[in-house]
């Protein structure tokens, strides 16, 4: 029987990173690539769909372990079955996953072609993107390592640049990779015409990448290979061996390989690309009114122009302002001038130094069984809303310092308290005494929505003894 996967491109989606310049919406436990702010879909989901045509094999996802359930949940929503979800035990920049992608592709096909792409970029014109991928294919099959350069529309100082050699071919030789420039240099690049934005998207044959790593970074190739060889399955995930992977050199793919490799080419393209790395980039990508104002959520603009409002749960009114970004979440508010929005990461640094939770998680926390969202909290009590997905539940546990009251808003909940089972339906409630062994399960076909009230001398999350 013929293997129909042979000859197809292996898409490898890198899903690390925090996106600190999109705080307070992007946070470590739910960073920008998983936020459903684009017609109800996330950037991660849009990336998965972009590489789901017949020319591609099922995607391979490389992520840190904190986001594993988000990845599984969002791919399941799309009905996309991944080739694998590989979990990095610690961050090691982008050289390590580039090597890992080649290693895993070679296990299936010595002639495999890899498309390595970030999960948090927006591509408006997918047809143009696919055309660029097809244009790169013959060069990749000939042994070249391909990168994709974006035709610049402005002298942007937030991107690295690719300098092309002279020529007009669809695939151009790369002269140099250039770091993020200052404004004056970026303006010179725009005038020169042979500088492109570096999109951080790469395409290569796995065999060519093996040769490049063995030439320029053999230590990374060897250590990543050992971590993969000793990886272990965990549910639907593949966990790389932690001790070996932690020893991998922490370096970017650009520094380790691309800036040292001579056999590098570029496909210039203009697919409506943005890395959406800041609030002005979000504003640029959104529809606007006649005054240039955009809103995600409820907003009213009066005598204002070129403003952005994002609001989780409150009406935001903007009067007499220009070029201002306003981002309102349930526990944090950001107001920044558009030309200073890159400095939001400095606010994040201050919050991290103060050990504030607002950079780590939102009030709504996503779990393997669903989610919980804090409503109110005070001395000796906490109130939260919860959703438990069909077939999911919380494991058997007990609390030393707190009791709990549960009220079912919708759905049917199966409750076990000290060995006694009971079905609790809409508008019914149950009390869990302090110290009682208990678990929750959703046996139905629809999500269970419920309100939980915790009360006691100590209500922190670590007051859980799992049985």
Automatic annotation (TrEMBL):
GO molecular function: GTP binding; mannose-1-phosphate guanylyltransferase (GTP) activity
MannoseP isomerase/GMP-like beta-helix domain location: 300-351
Keywords: GTP-binding, Nucleotide-binding, Nucleotidyltransferase, Transferase
InterPro entries noted in UniProt: GMPP_N, Man1P_GuaTrfase/Man6P_Isoase, Man6P_isomerase-2_C, ManC/GMP-like_b-helix, Mannose-6P_isomerase_type2, NTP_transferase_dom, Nucleotide-diphossugar_trans, RmlC-like_jellyroll
E.C. numbers: 2.7.7.13
Enzyme class: transferase
Family matches, as CDD domains: cupin_PMI_typeII_C, GDP-M1P_Guanylyltransferase
Ranges where the Mannose-6-phosphate isomerase type II C-terminal domain occurs: 355-467
Pfam families linked to this entry: ManC_GMP_beta-helix (PF22640), MannoseP_isomer (PF01050), NTP_transferase (PF00483)
Catalytic activity of the protein: alpha-D-mannose 1-phosphate + GTP + H(+) = GDP-alpha-D-mannose + diphosphate
GO BP annotations, alphabetical order: GDP-mannose biosynthetic process; polysaccharide biosynthetic process
Highest taxon in the source lineage: Bacteria
Domain Nucleotidyl transferase: 11-288
SUPFAM superfamilies (alphabetical): Nucleotide-diphospho-sugar transferases, RmlC-like cupins
PANTHER family xrefs: MANNOSE-1-PHOSPHATE GUANYLYLTRANSFERASE
Family: Belongs to the mannose-6-phosphate isomerase type 2 family.
UniProt-recorded name of the protein: mannose-1-phosphate guanylyltransferase
Organism (species): Pseudovibrio axinellae
Record gene name: algA
């Amino acid at each position: 029987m013929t293997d129909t996967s042979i000859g197809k491109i292996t898409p490898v989606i890198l899903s690390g990173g925090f996106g600190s310049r999109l705080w307070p919406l992007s946070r470590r436990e739910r960073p920008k690539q998983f936020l459903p702010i684009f017609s109800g879909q996330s950037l991660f989901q849009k990336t998965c769909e972009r590489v789901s045509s017949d020319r591609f094999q099922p995607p391979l996802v490389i992520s840190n372990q904190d986001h594993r359930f988000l990845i599984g949940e969002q791919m399941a929503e799309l009905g996309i079955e991944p080739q694998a979800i590989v979990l990095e035990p610690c961050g090691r920049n982008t050289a390590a996953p580039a090597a890992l992608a080649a290693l895993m592709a070679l296990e299936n096909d010595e002639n495999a072609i890899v498309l390595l792409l970030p999960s948090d970029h927006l591509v408006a014109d997918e047809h143009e993107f696919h055309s660029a991928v097809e244009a790169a294919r013959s060069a990749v099959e000939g042994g070249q390592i391909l990168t994709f350069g974006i035709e610049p529309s402005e002298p942007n100082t937030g991107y690295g640049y690719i300098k092309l050699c002279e020529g007009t071919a669809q695939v151009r030789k790369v002269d140099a990779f250039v770091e993020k420039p200052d404004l004056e240099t970026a303006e010179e690049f725009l005038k020169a015409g042979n500088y492109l934005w570096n999109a951080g998207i790469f395409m290569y044959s796995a065999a060519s990448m093996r040769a490049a790593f063995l030439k320029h970074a053999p230590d990374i190739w060897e250590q990543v290979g050992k971590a993969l060889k000793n990886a272990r399955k965990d549910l639907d995930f593949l966990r790389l061996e932690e001790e070996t992977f932690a020893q991998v050199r922490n370096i970017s793919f650009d520094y380790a390989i691309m800036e040292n490799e001579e056999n590098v080419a570029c496909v210039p393209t203009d697919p409506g690309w943005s890395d959406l790395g800041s609030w002005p980039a979000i504003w640029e990508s959104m529809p606007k009114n006649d005054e240039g104002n955009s809103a995600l959520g409820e907003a009213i603009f009066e005598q204002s122009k070129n403003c952005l409002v994002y609001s989780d749960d409150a009406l935001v009114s903007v009067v007499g302002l220009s070029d201002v970004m306003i981002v309102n979440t349930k526990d944090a508010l950001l107001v920044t001038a558009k030309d200073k929005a890159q400095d939001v990461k400095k606010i994040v640094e201050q919050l991290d130094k103060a050990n504030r939770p607002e950079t780590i998680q939102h009030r709504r926390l996503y779990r393997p069984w669903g989610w919980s969202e804090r409503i109110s909290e005070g001395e000796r009590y906490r109130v939260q809303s919860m959703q438990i997905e069909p077939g999911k539940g919380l494991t058997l546990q007990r609390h030393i310092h707190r009791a709990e009251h549960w009220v079912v808003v919708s759905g049917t909940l199966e409750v076990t308290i000290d060995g006694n089972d009971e079905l609790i339906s809409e508008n019914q409630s149950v009390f869990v005494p302090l110290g009682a062994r208990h678990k929750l399960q959703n046996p139905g076909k629809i999500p269970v929505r419920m309100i939980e009230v915790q009360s006691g001398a100590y209500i922190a999350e670590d007051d859980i003894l799992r049985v």
